[in-house]
Amino acid sequence: MTRVTAYAAPSEAAPLEKTVIERRELGPNDILIDIAFAGICHSDIHTVRGDWGPQQYPLAPGHEIAGTVAAVGSDVTKHAVGDRVGVGCLVNSCGECRNCLRGDEQFCSNGAIFTYGSTDRDGTVTQGGYSEQVVVTESFAVRIPDALGLDVAAPLLCAGITTYSPLRHWNVGPGSRVAVVGLGGLGHMGVQIAHALGAEVTVLSQTLSKKDDGLRLGADHYYATSDPETFRSLRGSFDVILNTVSAVVDLRAYLGLLDVGGSMVCVGAPAEPLSVNVSSLIGGRRSLAGSNIGGIQETQEMLDFCAEHGIAAEIEVISASQINEAYERVLASDVRYRFVIDGATFAD
Q: Angle CA(121)–CA(127)–CA(128) in degrees, nearest 5?
């Protein structure tokens, strides 16, 4: 085992603190990554605070990891020392079930192993990217194109693929009318990607405070959901609504904005359940759906797409000692649009 400095939550009610965690020894198919940057995702906060169920502590979160390969196992062929790589929400799967074989490792029938908080094949609990280094199986690391800085690439490993995957799955392209609910860490990526895919993009946000940002990122229109007129004037206007917020929303109101045959796709995951009146779906052959991240191949496709189209996360780089402050700011929606931890500060 290799011991590395990390920041971990000792319990669901305690702030994260500096500690030491163990990484497994390098296996023949493993790579060791020096972590340069790690993004802070709202999911990290939900998980360490027990919003999505009990956890095993201490727990180091972080599934938006960008860095360079420091060492490789004897059988590694995909990566070499010095390569720029990223690790997202997955670090292993069975590789044999139908979902894995078609590139949907995130839906592994035998249980996907996530970057933190999962029981790995050796019985240990996985620990995430709020740390100096990580060891992963080579096939679960993706190549970060040279056109993307490691700092702005880190959030793409979750926020980028979480929005790219449903937009591709629901065939968004030229002629598509897409609404993005919320202009936060996920939403600001969804706007850029939908715009690059050729869609007409509308942002639906509580207020107009981020309108200039939304238009700059590629939105064609921007409306405040706090204004009741928004839901009247936009009724039946969209083919796809990408709901990125991790809060309870009025599904009936939003479903009414879909055209016949349209789909509302939820990628934000509130701790509380949402309720839906089925008549809101039946009345226009509408669909209410959810989407997770993407598989490893699709994540690589997303990174290449972002590099080609000049898409990157808008970030605020912080030191590891500022993680707890950053959590409070995320909860207060006081970030534009993703906090990224400087990996060089974990050992400070």
A: 125
